[in-house]
Structure to design on (120 residues):
């Protein structure tokens, strides 16, 4: 018997979607009544730390986009944003400041206090 573990490249997810984020995404898709919607995650310039995260619904995916599927929900990432997001986890939180999707990014060297912007 071998002590090595096999690597399944199909199981690798370059961007993770937490269980809470998956649940909230399912709820939002049901409210919209459109099962083809996906959560687009992107990075833009700006914010207090240099870059900021953005979220939007997408019902179309271009050939250049990366589609990351989780059972019945999916994330879509454009090629420019992908390089900044690899290894990150999209979370969903509800608290005193409201409810929101957010990115836990291990590649960020600095983040702002609210977590909406970062620097690499």
């Amino acid at each position: 018997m071998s002590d090595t573990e096999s690597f399944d490249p199909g199981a690798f997810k370059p961007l993770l979607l937490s269980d809470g984020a998956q649940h909230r995404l399912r709820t939002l898709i049901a409210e919209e009544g459109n099962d083809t919607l996906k959560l687009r995650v992107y990075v833009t310039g700006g914010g207090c730390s240099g870059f900021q995260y953005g979220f939007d619904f997408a019902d179309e995916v271009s050939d250049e986009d990366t589609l990351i599927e989780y059972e019945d929900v999916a994330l879509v990432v454009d090629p420019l944003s992908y390089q900044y997001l690899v290894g990150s986890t999209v979370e969903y939180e509800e608290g005193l400041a409201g409810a929101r999707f957010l990115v836990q990014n291990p590649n960020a060297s600095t983040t702002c206090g609210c977590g909406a912007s970062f620097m690499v």
In short: Helices lie at 19-32, 79-85. Strands lie at 16-17, 38-45, 51-58, 66-70, 73-77, 89-95, 98-104, 110-111, 117-119.
